[in-house]
Design goal:
heterodimer, A: about 210 residues, alpha/beta, seven-stranded mixed beta sheet, disordered C terminus, B: about 325 residues, mainly alpha, Helicase, Ruva Protein, domain 3, Cyclin A, domain 1, 2 domains, Rab-GAP-TBC_dom (chain B), Rab-GAP_TBC_sf (chain B), Rab_GAP_TBC_domain (chain B), Growth hormone-regulated TBC protein 1-A-like (chain B)
Chain lengths: ~210, ~325
Amino acid sequence: MSYAYLFKYIIIGDTGVGKSCLLLQFTDKRFQPVHDLTIGVEFGARMITIDGKQIKLQIWDTAGQESFRSITRSYYRGAAGALLVYDITRRDTFTHLTTWLEDARQHSNSNMVIMLIGNKTDLESRRDVKKEEGEAFAREHGLIFMETSAKTAANVEEAFINTAKEIYEKIQEGVFDINNEANGIKIGPQHSPSSPHAPSGSLGQQAGGGCC
Amino acid sequence: MATAVKVDGYGFERPEDFDFETYEEFMSRYLSVLVRRAKKWEQLFGSSPLEDHLKRSSKVKRYTRKGIPGDKRALVWMTMSGALARMQANPGVYQRLLEAPTHDDPVIDAIRTDIHRTFPENVFFVDAPEGQRVPLFNVLVAFARRRPDVGYCQGLNFVAGMLLLVVKDEERSFWLLDAFVGGVVPTGYYTPAMTGLRTDTRVLAELVRARWPDVDATMRREGATFDLVATKWFVCAYVDVLPVETLLRIWDSLFYEGAKVVFRVAVTMVARQRARVAAARGLADVVSAFRVAIDDPANTFAHDFMADVFRVPGSFPMATIDKLREQCERAVLEEDR
């Protein structure tokens, strides 16, 4: 299946907030209650449609533990979108957002779209961070914001797709230089006449191709 | 097969798509290997205490490379890694480490978060009193206290979990973990800056470059580093990466010969997927090629795999590794400045 654009995403945030589960829910539409923890970097892919155009999302899922940041950081740079995730039942994961944000801003391109995600809304009774707090943090730092549940799939599609819409709008506005792949955007093979290295085969043609 | 066994000998549930045919083919040959090796070890060591025989010798090295019999594995690992000596020199230390008061410590929280995420598909890693979750928690907490410079680093949970499954004894598993981090693998694998780990992924890149410039060229072009593809291989020493039988054989040699075995395995895996990696287009495609290296059914054939590990990478002088480490470490430290 061909695509008009490929967008690269990264998913970041503290360990255990549900990054890999969000990715799995998005690519495979399933929830794994006991998920092996992610060490290093994994990735998944899925095709979506925006404005009648096929867009391939290539999503890099990173280890949350701090020491791994020296490794995962180098993959921030080539990303057009970032999902910054915290767990609404663990306040410390919310408190750490500032550090994550600084790290992301410092190591990525300045136009990267960042979606703040408060995950685990299925655990409402254990909620430790109010929705308003998430909204306020997002407003203050110029992020988009959503609360999701990787378990029930609530807002998971929307989180990934709204991020893509924002990137797409920025392309339309001419904010992104789409000829520079370092921005995490690639024009599909049939859309650029001179692209000898365009991916033509194996990977991510089907949803969830390379996840986990 | 009439009845497919859903759990393997180490308690791992087999996934729905488990390749029983390949496994059967492997086991039908491997069982006779195991019987032969067990007989050889008996002949070599007779009835005198095993420890007396484990002096470094080319014969023991050869025997180890061909696999330690399951019933001797724990003791041989303990002896060769120095874990037994550590344990004997520190009576009561493990208990005392556990008895220290547990505060609202972020390290302990981090360990707690990962306990139920360690081998969720293993029947021994359950909350039941006889399950391995409490021992795993204890081993990791005691280790974090013994080595505050490391604390807890993800990956140690898999290493400790595997040790518990093989050794089946909490205190011995603890001392093996201590010897593993403090001697078997290089320093700086599990410390916050991960300098040793990042050094070794770069050393691997150099080893690959010297052998297969085409693989190196593709990886450079696509911006793929061995940080990206091999971090888990190194941090987990192949636990949760390769099939269990194969993993145990790797660890047999790892505990005897040390960390260069980790490189031998990595280089062998790259060699097996060389064409696929070299032909990859795009970063995702490179990563997928390495996924194939992990999922390769050929990895099941532990005996053949290990034969390749000691043949395919060619000679592996420690002097070369040391020199590369020195170079690569400089680059890592430079990057962190």
